Amino acid sequence: MAARRGPYFCGIDAAMDVVSGKWKVLILWELADHGVRRFAQLRRGLPGVSEKMLVQQLRELEEDGLVHREVFAEVPPRVEYALTDEGRSLNEALAPLGAWGTERIRRIGAEKVYAS
Amino acid sequence: MAARRGPYFCGIDAAMDVVSGKWKVLILWELADHGVRRFAQLRRGLPGVSEKMLVQQLRELEEDGLVHREVFAEVPPRVEYALTDEGRSLNEALAPLGAWGTERIRRIGAEKVYAS
DNA sequence: AGGGGTGCTTACCGAAAGGTGGGTACTGCA
DNA sequence: TGCAGTACCCACCTTTCGGTAAGCACCCCT
Questions:
Q1: Residues near B19 by Cβ (< 8 Å), separated by ≥ 6?
Q2: Residue A3, CB half-sphere, CA atoms under 13 Å: how many?
Q3: Whole-number Å distance, CA B114 to C1' C26?
Q4: Quick check: A1 pLDDT over 70?
Q5: Neighbours of A29 (CB within 10 A)
Q6: Chain-wide mean pLDDT for chain B?
Q7: What percent of chain A has pLDDT over 70?
Q8: Nearest nucleotide (C1') to alpha carbon of B3
């Protein structure tokens, strides 16, 4: 990921920078839905994601301050992911876009196949 | 561009599909700002965009029904671009995201360099 | 006659994104 | 004994994205 972080043309540009990545918004969505999630739970919640991609996107979201990562020194290892305040506010800002997309799916008839 | 158009996990997924592309949201923004724009006007309004990319992104936005393209059989040729109703509604859905991005820019201090 | 503007198209190329398949160190269960 | 689960990391490879440069067909201005 290109790690731009500015300079930006405008706000949307900045937001898109942080949110671009095949799984980012889906991860945000999943975390907003369930609160705290473990790695394997996210993996199961996002059908089709590879482990590499999931790690990568989570790390980037963490770097950008949207996701909080907490490691428990246990065996077997446990790592929990949750949204930060900024992540939650981003999700709220994404909500209208999600609604628009849902409307669009309805219009063009592209059904979702995966259970949420 | 991968031309997915479904199946989607959810609304955001669908919206992101339509909006992903380096210049798409900027084009939408520009058209929302000025109403009708000609090719060269858009080009000048988006510093750094190449002609190829601008054509490509405009065509995709047109295919997705967000932008209306009207060709006038004149010489020199004239082509006008404008948002469709769906494009306008997408822009409205993007507004909160834009606001979030602006807030974020303020927080992390990544200044925009280009005049809007 | 030459340069610039109009709105594109095509070919090529490098970089980046994303997928595949392996390995790790440890435990619990059968 | 051997397989599954935990949460990753690594090297490699392919696909896609986006940029560069050129051409086109016609016009106007100087």
A1: A16, B25, B28, B90, B94
A2: 5
A3: 53
A4: no
A5: 22
A6: 90
A7: 89
A8: D16
Residue A13 lies in a domain: no
Distance (Å) from CA A43 to C1' C28? 22
A51 found inside a domain: no
Query: Mean pLDDT, to the nearest integer, of A45-68?
Result: 96
Closest nt to A69 (CA→C1')? D7
Q: Beta strands of chain A (E only): which ranges?
A: 37-38, 67-72, 78-83
Instruction: Give the pLDDT confidence score for residue A116 in this predicted structure.
Output: 33
- Chain segment B85-114, per-residue pLDDT in tens: 999 999 999 999 999 999 999 998 755 444
Does the CB of A38 sit below 7 A from strand D?
A: yes
Domain count, chain B: 1
Quick check: A70 pLDDT over 70? yes
Would B107 be classed as within a structural domain? Answer: no
pLDDT at B115: 37
pTM for this entry: 0.90
Q: Which residue reads 């409307």 in tokens?
A: A103
The per-residue b/e assignment along B85-100, b for 16 or more CB within 10 angstroms, e otherwise, is ebbebbbebbbbbbeb
Residue B31 resides in a domain: yes
